[in-house]
Amino acid sequence: MSFYDDKTALTTQKEILSALQQKLPADLQLLEPSSAGSITAWAVTKKTAEKYNLHTLSDLAPVSGDLTLGGPPEVATAALGLPGLKAVYGINFKSIKSLDMGGPLSRLALSSGAIDVATVVSTQGILAKEPWVVLEDNKHQQPLQNITPLGRKALLTPEVTKVLNQVSAKLTDEDLKQLNRLVDIDHKDPAKVAAQWVTEHTAKTAQ
């Protein structure tokens, strides 16, 4: 939705999809959204989570002044980054280190203790490998970004639509993490990984 309206304040799936369909060219059609989706999130090590009893971003607020945040350069100024955390939760970190979005730099910094909180994507493959704790966005500061098939109406035959909607119905956040792990961490072929998942999760339904 932000592609068409970068000032949108819509946050619920129903609002976003309704507004998006109205913005799309007439020959494009949205299909059924999946419950799975990726959002910006914040992770800590299991040790840090246990030390401060952290489960949610609300839990983070009272101790954030003692902690260092790591993330991409824009996290300090982007509306959905630190300014949003401060406005919604009252989070104000001791310091910020410019790194990456849950990539190698953040992984090393979090593991070594150079930072206490890492900015990540909620379904990154690294989260399926590292024993990190992703803090719950309990006040829904981040807008939903559910995966939703989009296609040209002329190509969306009943058969194609049925398969795509089956994928949406089956796909979960955990699936996304595992699929990303296979591609990003284990370096598997993306097309083969995707094909195997579709075969395993839609074959019975399609029969």
TrEMBL record:
SUPFAM superfamilies: Periplasmic binding protein-like II. The keyword Lipoprotein applies. GO terms for molecular function: transmembrane transporter activity. GO terms for cellular component: ATP-binding cassette (ABC) transporter complex. Signal peptide: none annotated. This is Periplasmic glycine betaine/choline-binding lipoprotein of an ABC-type transport system. The keyword Translocase does not apply. It comes from Pseudomonas syringae pv. helianthi. Residues 20-199 form the ABC-type glycine betaine transport system substrate-binding domain. It comes from the Bacteria. Keywords: Lipoprotein.
